[in-house]
């Protein structure tokens, strides 16, 4: 349980620190999101490498997405994705109804505009994990009511 608290605190401080530096003129806000996404990408690559070293090969894209939603998400966020949807044409929607990184700030609607800052790292995490499994993708996130969020994964054919 202590490692979960440390992760939440570290993530919050990464976001706050990058945006604070941007406000002081050391960067721009758009670059903050890119930096967070890049950090998440690298972490996702490393975690997937570690988690899949003893697993059998995946049959297809859907199997990989199921692994991300169950095993990967459970290890990182202590719960499975609540819903996985696909159009069977390379677009997947992962829905988490109580996303851990948004729970602390979900008390009021005034924080809804700040939610994307806290999702960039996780978008990178998903994209990095998929990249290490041989899937090139674009990952975006949306929040309509906190702490629920949806991650849209668009698979890019090579």
How would you explain this protein's 3D organization?
The protein has 158 residues and is α+β, with helices and mostly antiparallel strands. It has one domain: Trafficking protein particle complex subunit 3 (Muramoyl-pentapeptide Carboxypeptidase, domain 2, 2-Layer Sandwich), CATH 3.30.1380.20. Helices cover 50% and strands 16% of the residues. The protein has helices spanning 2-23, 29-51, 61-77, 100-103, 120-132; strands spanning 83-86, 91-96, 136-142, 149-156. The protein has a four-stranded antiparallel beta sheet with strand order 1-2-4-3, covered by helices on one side. Strand 1 (83-86) and strand 2 (91-96) form a beta hairpin. Helix 2 crosses helix 5. The longest helix is centred in the first third of the chain and has 23 residues, at 29-51. The chain is globular, with a radius of gyration of 16 Å. The termini are far apart. The mean pLDDT is 86.
List keywords for this structure.
158 residues; 5 helices; 4 strands; Muramoyl-pentapeptide Carboxypeptidase, domain 2; single chain; alpha+beta
* Level-2 CATH architecture: 2-Layer Sandwich
Tally of structural domains: 1
Cα(first) to Cα(last) distance is 40 Å
Query: What overall form do the CA principal axes indicate?
Result: globular
Strand order of the largest sheet: 1-2-4-3
Task: Return the structural class.
Answer: alpha+beta
Radius of gyration: 16 Å
Low-confidence parts:
none
- Residue share in β-strands: 15-25%
Task: Give the beta-strand count.
Answer: 4
By CATH, the superfamily comes out as Trafficking protein particle complex subunit 3
| Percent helix | 40-55%
* Topology pattern, helix = H, strand = E: HHHEEHHEE
What's the CATH first level?
Answer: Alpha Beta
Major sheet details: 4 strands, antiparallel
